[in-house]
Amino acid sequence: MNLRELLSVPYLLEAEAVETDAGKWRLRLDYPELPGCSAEGLVVEDVLKELEQRRVEMIVDLVEAGKQPPIPRKPLTNSDPLWAVRDPGLSARIAALLRNAKQTP
Q: Residue 73 sits in which domain range?
């Protein structure tokens, strides 16, 4: 499976509101099938963006280390994992790998 396919694997998303102090709440998002892949914050869009960046970086790190990320289900055929490349918060290393994966059949 190439990097593009690995980044198109759908993972379960868990979301919960967490009370940090009396009356103060934060959102916690987690991909439980990717151990350690979670994000927390106040604005759902920001937390989801951070979680997606962590998911991409975690999968790329595993691939670069010669390890296979968890594949709990088949990749989505109509997914475009390259949308994350457009995000300036994503490292240049990952962006280059994704561009190369797009060119590979």
A: 3-103
